[in-house]
């Protein structure tokens, strides 16, 4: 069929191969026909199977049904073979279903089950398992109504306990009747509603727990069972909505459950009972999924009466941070709930108030510092300096992260990336106040590639907004440096990190983000021009030169006097803009570019809070003493970059700011450990650019330079 090749399997599954072009489709078609010994010029080679579905619809009521064996113990094997054999044919499945329904056969089979169980007839019980399982796969709602009635459902569950592949039968009936307890959150007086709830729970249990995971060819066999459960739930909700009093009950109930859940979660750090912790988390999960707006309203009211450290959301964040599970299963679940709560898509807006603005103001003022505490603590300068390279005078910027810490930081970065996409003003304010992107990019040096990719994804989302405030923040802070160093460090390895970095720069090129293109080309092109397996960086240089030519043409088209005045006026405007963005008196790291976030009294002490969280965590797990491998560049070059904006600026005083660092290609002998480095520091002062070039004094390297191959340099600052 042009770009499709379709066929049917024996069990009536339609499959297809899809091709982008017809030529490719024809080529494969010819090969298939060659194997089959068929003529490729014809459009159909498979022996056509008449549409069985159409035959079912047209089948007269007098069509002969399948003759069922008599329902006796000695016929169970024959019945099992019959049920199994019809599953491949829709017509035979339909005929068998009609026969079972007309003769009341299912109830007779369940009576035989009770006999077999009383006689401990294991062989008969195994046959009954196959029979009942096969009847479920007939996928008929009319049969489900019989099987899942109060009279029959427990016997159906009993038959499914005797799986022939298991050494011992399961005890599903014992669980459903003794372990599982029905708890009425609100009083339910309608007996029909209660029966429907019980039935739905048990049928869901059969589908999720008892029946094995269906294979690809069995998935459609249980589609009606899935629909049966769904429509049961719809009916339950409809019955509940009849009484409007339940609305008030729900509100009271939500408040009560939130208060109880909060009390339990506050006590969790000292609890060893995993079941209690799991139950509390599950309850919180149900509440958030049921009504996130009500949970938000509760926590905002709570903030008026409680300190930040015992707010419900902060307690949840603490539980996420202190999760002792090596795979952080609980942390992943809690992170998903937090994302639901801070998602503007499910926040309400009314004429009187906007839930989005109120809740996000609350979250960023009272909770964000708790969420980012592990990230800031693990990327601080003190933390990184402790992991110094032996024998080196430079600090090692590889953060000392074990696998579990790396997983936690990745979860936090995922949530922060979500905030960048959905919160605009609030997260922009926070990023610039805390110089957060610089701290995140420290993780580009992590030994865990997935964490480095999370850090890169965070920056990619920021750049993807094409917001000039962010762009100025990135260029002023020289924040491309750790990304480019990661690319150079990666060498010639063609992996996900390489592709992700290249995609970042390709996006900048395609979207023609002029301020970033100019910054990259002016400061890093010398280090990147040797990368020729993609045209991204040459493309950036071309874009840069084209823009420069356009500016020159505009400038040349203006009379000299006007051009001089215009230039001076632009310079003043630029100077005023600079002062708006970066105050001359940078007394504090990470000056705010937008109005600062209101600080809560807990925020100043967030490192202490984080240490308190981690003490609890360390008490429950053995300390990971894994030694981190030391990263080395393929060319033997090392670099350090400042983690604070103020540290980078202090060297040049109040009227000059270091905005970039770049190196020219250097040469080194492969058999020698010596390195020759040419470092260029571009210093921006008011009204001028001055390039300072520092040449190494090692004269011994001059003779080696010509003979040694070129190696890709790392950037120095």
Sequence-ordered SSE layout with sheet pairings:
Blueprint lengths: L3 E5 L5 E5 L3 H15 L15 H7 L17 H10 L4 H13 L2 H15 L2 H16 L3 H7 L5 H7 L12 H8 L11 H20 L12 H18 L4 H23 L6 H17 L1 H12 L8 H10 L7 H13 L13 H12 L1 H11 L2 H5 L17 H20 L2 H10 L1 H6 L7 H16 L3 H9 L4 H9 L6 H16 L2 H15 L7 H21 L3 H22 L24 H15 L24 H6 L5 E9 L1 E2 L10 E8 L2 E7 L6 H7 L2 E2 L6
Antiparallel strand pairs: 1-2, 3-5, 4-7, 5-6
Organism: Cuculus canorus
Family: Belongs to the SMEK family.
GO molecular function, one term: protein phosphatase activator activity
List keywords for this structure.
717 residues; mainly alpha; three-stranded antiparallel beta sheet; two-stranded antiparallel sheet; 7 strands
Walk me through what this model shows:
Helices cover 57% and strands 5% of the residues. The chain has helices at 22-36, 52-58, 76-85, 90-102, 105-119, 122-137, 141-147, 153-159, 172-179, 191-210, 223-240, 245-267, 274-290, 292-303, 312-321, 329-341, 355-366, 368-378, 381-385, 403-422, 425-434, 436-441, 449-464, 468-476, 481-489, 496-511, 514-528, 536-556, 560-581, 606-620, 645-650, 701-707, and strands spanning 4-8, 14-18, 656-664, 666-667, 678-685, 688-694, 710-711. A hairpin with a 5-residue loop joins strand 1 (4-8) and strand 2 (14-18). Mean pLDDT is 74; it is low at 48-62, 387-398, 566-579, 581-603 and 622-714. The strands form three sheets. It has a three-stranded antiparallel beta sheet. A two-stranded antiparallel sheet has the order 1-2. The protein is mainly α. Helix 5 (105-119) packs antiparallel against helix 6 (122-137), helix 23 runs parallel beside helix 26 and helix 25 packs across helix 26 (496-511). Among the domains are: 4-36, no CATH class; 75-242, no CATH class. Residues 598-629 have a biased composition (Basic and acidic residues). Residues 579-591, 695-706 have a biased composition (Acidic residues). One of its GO terms (molecular function) is protein phosphatase activator activity. Residues 78-244, 270-546 form the Serine/threonine-protein phosphatase 4 regulatory subunit 3-like central domain. Belongs to the SMEK family.
């Amino acid at each position: 069929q042009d770009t499709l090749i379709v066929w049917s399997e024996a069990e009536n599954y339609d499959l297809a191969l899809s091709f982008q072009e017809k030529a490719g489709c024809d080529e494969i078609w010819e090969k298939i026909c060659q194997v089959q010994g068929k003529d490729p010029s014809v459009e159909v080679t498979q022996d056509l199977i008449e549409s069985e579905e159409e035959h079912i619809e047209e089948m007269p009521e007098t069509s002969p049904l399948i003759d069922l064996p008599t329902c006796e113990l000695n016929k169970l094997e024959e019945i099992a073979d019959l049920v199994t054999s019809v599953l491949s044919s829709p017509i035979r499945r339909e005929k068998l279903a009609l026969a079972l329904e007309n003769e009341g056969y299912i109830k007779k089979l369940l009576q035989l089950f009770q006999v077999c169980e009383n006689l401990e007839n294991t062989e008969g019980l195994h046959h009954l398992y196959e029979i009942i399982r096969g009847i479920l796969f007939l996928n008929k709602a009319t049969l489900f109504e019989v099987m899942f009635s109060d009279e029959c459902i427990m016997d159906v569950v009993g038959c499914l306990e005797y799986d022939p592949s298991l050494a011992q039968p399961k005890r599903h009936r014992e669980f459903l009747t003794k372990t599982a307890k029905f708890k009425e959150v609100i009083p339910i007086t309608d007996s029909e509603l209660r029966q429907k709830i019980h039935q739905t729970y048990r049928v869901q249990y059969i589908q999720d727990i008892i029946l094995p995971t269906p294979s690809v060819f069995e998935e459609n066999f249980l589609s009606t069972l899935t629909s049966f459960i769904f429509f049961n739930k719809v009916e339950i909700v409809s019955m509940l909505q009849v009484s409007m009093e339940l609305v008030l009950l729900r509100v009271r109930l939500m408040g009560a459950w939130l208060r109880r859940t909060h009390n339990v979660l506050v006590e969790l750090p000292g609890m060893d009972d995993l079941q209690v912790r799991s139950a509390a988390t599950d309850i919180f999960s149900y509440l958030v999924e049921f009504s996130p707006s009500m949970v938000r309203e509760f926590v905002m009211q709570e903030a008026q009466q409680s300190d930040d450290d015992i707010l419900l959301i902060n307690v949840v964040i603490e539980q996420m941070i202190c999760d002792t599970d090596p795979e952080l299963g609980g942390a992943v679940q809690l992170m998903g709930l937090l994302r639901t709560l801070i998602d503007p898509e499910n926040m309400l807006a009314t004429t009187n108030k906007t839930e989005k603005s109120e809740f996000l103001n609350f979250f960023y003022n009272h909770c964000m510092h708790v969420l980012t505490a592990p990230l800031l603590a693990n990327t601080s300068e003190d933390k990184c300096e402790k992991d110094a390279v032996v024998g080196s005078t430079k600090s090692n910027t590889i953060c000392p992260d074990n696998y579990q810490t790396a997983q936690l930081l990745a979860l936090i970065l995922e949530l922060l990336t979500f905030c960048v996409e959905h919160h605009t003003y609030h997260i922009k304010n926070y990023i610039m106040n805390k110089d957060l992107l610089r701290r995140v990019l420290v993780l580009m040096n992590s030994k865990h590639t997935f964490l480095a990719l999370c850090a890169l994804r965070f920056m990619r989302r920021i750049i993807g907004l094409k917001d000039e405030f962010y762009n100025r923040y990135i260029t002023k802070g020289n924040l491309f440096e750790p990304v480019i160093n990661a690319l150079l460090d990666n060498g010639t390895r063609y992996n996900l990190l390489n592709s992700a970095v290249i995609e970042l720069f390709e996006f900048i090129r395609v979207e023609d983000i002029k301020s970033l293109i100019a910054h990259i080309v002016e400061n890093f092109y010398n280090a990147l021009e040797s990368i020729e397996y993609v045209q991204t960086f040459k493309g950036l240089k071309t874009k840069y030169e084209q823009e420069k030519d356009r500016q020159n043409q505009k400038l040349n088209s203006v009379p000299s006097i006007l051009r001089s005045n215009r230039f001076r006026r632009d310079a003043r405007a630029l100077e005023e803009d600079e002062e708006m963005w970066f105050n001359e008196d940078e007394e504090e790291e990470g000056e705010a570019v937008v109005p600062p976030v209101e600080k809560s009294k807990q925020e100043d002490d967030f490192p202490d809070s984080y240490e308190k969280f981690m003490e609890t965590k360390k008490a429950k797990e053995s300390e990971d003493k894994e030694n981190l491998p030391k990263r080395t560049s393929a060319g033997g070059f090392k670099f350090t970059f400042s983690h604070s904006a103020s540290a980078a600026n202090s060297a040049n005083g109040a009227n000059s700011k270091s905005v970039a660092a770049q190196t020219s290609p250097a040469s080194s002998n492969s058999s020698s450990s010596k390195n020759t480095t040419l470092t260029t520091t571009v210093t921006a002062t008011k009204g001028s650019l001055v390039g300072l070039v520092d040449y190494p004094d090692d004269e011994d390297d001059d003779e080696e330079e010509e003979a040694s191959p070129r190696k890709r340099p790392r950037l120095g600052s």
